[in-house]
Amino acid sequence: MKRPKGRQWDRERIRELRRHLGLTQTRLAEELGTRQQTISEWETGMYQPRGASATLLTIIAERSGFNYQVKKSKEERDER
After folding, report:
1. Domains assigned to the chain
2. Cβ of 60: how many Cβ atoms within 10 Å?
3. Which of 56, 66, 67 lies closest to 30, judged by CA?
4. pLDDT one-digit tens code per residue, 24-49
C-alpha cells in the first residue's frame, strides 16, 4: 500500500496517538528508537516528525486503528 507523501503530523495528533496507545512519552520514544525529549518536542510543536519517523507514526496509527487525519502540507494545499 502506497502511503501519501508530504503529510505532516501535528502536535495534537501525536499526543492523541500516544494516548490512544496508552504509552508514556518515554515508552513511545523507545518504540520509535528516539529520545523522550524528541517526543516532547513533537508534542509541544517545537518540531515535527519527518521522514522515517512520520512514516512510522502513520504505520502505527493504521495498525492500531487510530482514527486520524494528518494535515496536508503547503504543497498539497496549493495543488488544489
Report:
1. 11-67 (1.10.260)
2. 18
3. 56
4. 999 999 999 999 999 999 999 999 99
